[in-house]
Design a protein that fits this description.
Layout lengths: L2 H7 L9 H12 L6 H17 L8 H13 L5
């Protein structure tokens, strides 16, 4: 079974986010390879969870820190 099919059959929950944030995410999704805001948000959250699962005492590398900054900038949290 493909990953996408497994995800589609997994029970879902609803998460509420501020509408302006959702609109910003829509703009990001329009210019990306993602099919929807939901797909994008799931991708970002999985990435964050994977990062959190690593050794919490280990400091972030310069590359990891820059990736976090890029994510936050693309979401409108940083200038």
């Amino acid at each position: 079974m493909a990953t996408r099919e497994r995800v589609a059959k997994t029970p879902k929950v609803t998460i509420k986010i501020p509408r302006p944030l959702y609109r910003n995410l829509q703009l990001i999704v329009e210019h990306s390879g993602f099919d929807s805001v939901t797909d994008f948000v799931v991708y970002v959250l999985r990435d964050l969870v994977a990062a959190a699962a690593r050794d919490p005492e280990a400091p972030l590398s310069k590359d990891e820190l820059e990736a976090v900054r890029r994510h936050l900038r693309s979401l409108g949290y940083l200038d």
